[in-house]
Amino acid sequence: MRNYKSIKNLGHGSAGSVDLVENIETGNQYALKTIALANMNQKEKESALSEIHFLKVLKGPTLIKSYQSYVEKDKIMIFMEYAEGGTLADKILEYKLAGEAFDTDTIINWISQVILGVMLMHSKNILHRDLKSQNLFLISDGTIKIGDFGISKELPSIDSLAKTSCGTPYFMPPEVCKGEPYGEKIDIWAIGCILYELVFFKKPFESKTIYGVFEKIINTPLEHTYEECDENIRMLLMALLDKDPSRRPSIWELAKTDIIKYYINQFVNERGLHEEVATVFEC
Name one GO molecular function term (predicted). Predict the structure, then answer.
């Protein structure tokens, strides 16, 4: 850390913090994630260390970049790309407080970039398992990037099922709430929750208790009527937030829908990303 100076704290949680740091020699800025291992049990340590693995494996234009990481004195230090625009959750709150709404073009563009990022993950048989607006980051050119791979999970194949409970309650799909095995469709549901939040500035299922949230996710239809939004968004919400995971589209099926395919192609063409994403479209 001798070559870096701390600029400001970007956030903190029970396991550690994220700080904006600057390289004294180059002036380059990074988000430094520090995870304290001292008070963790073995399972928690393994989960923390897995983030280093996934940051090394996962590369793509809509995934947060990792530059270096190491363990030092019972702490994990991860130098990552700094997202100047903050989180998508920050942006949603900003618009909500200002009484403004996101236009349809912006919403579908962002969701398409998230879908591209999940395609990159699923192509390597990796589930994110905690997709939410707080884990999506905006960089200076307007690109949205997926971050926080702390509880991501690698499966033998993308069709395999996992059993470990995970994620944030508001974004959990019915199968996880019921304690059933789950697969890739857990991330599809979460994309639907993010899309819903972008449109209505609230979570699709809310309650004062976790039990209440789970009960609504499992049994209650969405509160808002689909007639309130654009037809393309309405169709996406119906597909992504289907309570039956077998009826939810895979990430590949989702990417082939006309509207998402159009926006992904536009994003790739405008930024000249054909080589970076070529392997994904071969899956």
Answer: protein serine/threonine kinase activity
Q: Output the CA torsion sign for 45, 139, 253, 106.
A: positive
**Which structural domain range is residue 72 located in?**
4-81
In one-letter notation, the amino acid at residue 79 is F
Among this protein's residues, is 130 annotated catalytic?
yes
Domain with residue 234: its CATH number is 1.10.510.10
Q: Which of 19, 130, 148, 242 is catalytic?
A: 130
pLDDT at 16 over 60: yes
How many other C-beta atoms can be found within 10 angstroms of the C-beta atom of residue 172? 26
Q: Which long-range contacts (CB under 8 A, 24 or more apart) does 262-270 make?
A: 263/108, 263/109, 263/112, 264/112, 264/113, 264/115, 264/116, 266/109, 267/109, 267/112, 267/113, 267/116, 268/116
Q: Which residues contact 23 (CB under 8 A, 6 or more apart)?
A: 3, 4, 29, 30
pLDDT digits (tens, 9 = 90+) for 247-259: 999 999 999 999 9
β partners of residue 23:
4
**What gap in Å lies between CA 173 and CA 131, rounded to an integer?**
11
Q: What is the CA radius of gyration of the chain?
A: 19
Q: Determine how many CB atoms are found less than 10 A away from the CB of residue 92.
A: 19
Q: Using one digit for the tens of pLDDT, what is the confidence trace for 212-257?
A: 999 999 999 886 666 678 999 999 999 999 999 999 999 999 999 9
State pLDDT tens for residues 41-51. Answer: 887 777 777 77
CB 134 within 8 Å of CB 167: no
Q: How far apart are CA 13 and CA 11, in angstroms?
A: 7
> pTM for the full model?
0.89
Tell me how many domains the chain contains: 2
**Quick check: 200 pLDDT over 90?**
yes
Same domain for 109 and 46, yes or no, is no
- The answer on 255 and 186 residing in a single domain is yes
Q: Which residue has the higher pLDDT, 246 or 281?
A: 246
